[in-house]
Amino acid sequence: MGSLSAKLRRAQWKLGRRLYMTARGEPQSNLPDSSDERYMQAATLAALGDGPATILDVGANKGQWSSQLLGLASTALRSPDRLHLHAFEPVPATREVYKSKLAATPGGDCATLHPLALSNAAGTAEIAIWGETAGTNTLSFDDSSVGRAQRVLTIETTTLDSFLAEHGIDHVALLKIDAEGHDFLVLQGGQASLAAGKIDAVQFEYSHRWIYARQFLRDVFRLIEDLPYTLCRIRHDGLEHIAEWHPELERYFDANFALVHERVEGRYAIHRGAFDGGNTYA
Q1: Which residue from 210, 216, 254, 220 is spatially nearest to 234, judged by alpha carbons?
Q2: Domain ranges (residues) in the chain
């Protein structure tokens, strides 16, 4: 293929990919201040009012999501006796950045930072460090990717079920998971809590890093079978309900999804669409 043909093909590919992703409603950014994550926070907080409430930030990284949440919360809710924000960050250097950011955030004293990773089992695990404060450090990697890491660090893990039991937490308003491909294993570790209805809503990230964990969105559908949770994709202005798994979902584009308990569906603007025979959703 000549250089001109290659350039033309790349241009067509980029245009086609952009049109396809726009039609699907894929987010242009998957950072905490992107509109979809902000919507989930704002809608949840609006329903909570002045609390009290417990919220979990799994994969807290440098504190962007926690800080944004506190910025959206009411002044009355931003009090340690009203809001209990539990954050989990296993990488030491990243924890220090989180502490500094929350110390400078109004309501930062609502947050408790735990030097743990949530997973599907308690014990220890290895995390690949791409950078000391990188948002891509992950427990889900394989031999083809670990060689690019700066180092591998052994960290402590626990499960969501164990953590809630140990801390006497019976109700979680929002569980946010951004675990760089390890997200489904965090959900697996909370199966009993989900079955007991302890969690109102879950926000979790889905991306190409799920490939390294050998996980699919289909696994999430199977996890919540017979449970009163709805699986939705988070959009900038609401949620898109997805009634059942469809192969068109497995594209591994960075996006955030939600599990919403039926008792709190009224908190969110939920569009109930469906896939058709042409593999399109509307």
Answers
A1: 254
A2: 36-272
pTM of the model: 0.91
Given a contact cutoff of 8 angstroms between Cβ atoms, the answer to whether 113 and 99 are in contact is yes
* Alpha carbon 194 to its chain's center: 16
**Alpha-carbon distances, residue 103 vs 95, 107, 110, 237, 260 (angstroms):** 12, 9, 10, 31, 31
Measured CA to CA, the distance from residue 52 to residue 27 in angstroms comes to 32
Distance CA 13, CA 212 (A): 25
Cβ count near 252 (within 10 Å): 15
And the tokens for 162? 């164990």
Distances (CA, A) of 107 to 33, 77, 86, 171, 172: 18, 9, 13, 21, 19
pLDDT digits (tens, 9 = 90+) for 244-275: 999 999 999 999 999 999 999 999 999 999 99
Measuring CA to CA, which residue among 189, 190, 193, 252 is closest to residue 218? Answer: 252
Residue 138 is given by DSSP the state: B
Q: Please give the Cα distance from 146 to 124 (Å, whole number).
A: 18
Read off the amino acid at residue 168: G
Which tens digits make up the pLDDT trace of 94-146?
Answer: 999 999 999 999 999 999 999 999 999 999 988 877 666 666 666 666 565 66
Beta strands in 4-122 (DSSP E): 53-58, 83-88, 111-114, 117-119
- Cβ-contact 178, 138 below 8 angstroms: no
Q: Where are the beta strands (DSSP E) in the chain?
A: 53-58, 83-88, 111-114, 117-119, 123-129, 151-159, 174-177, 201-206, 229-235, 238-241, 255-261, 270-272
What fold, for 36-272? Rossmann fold (3.40.50)
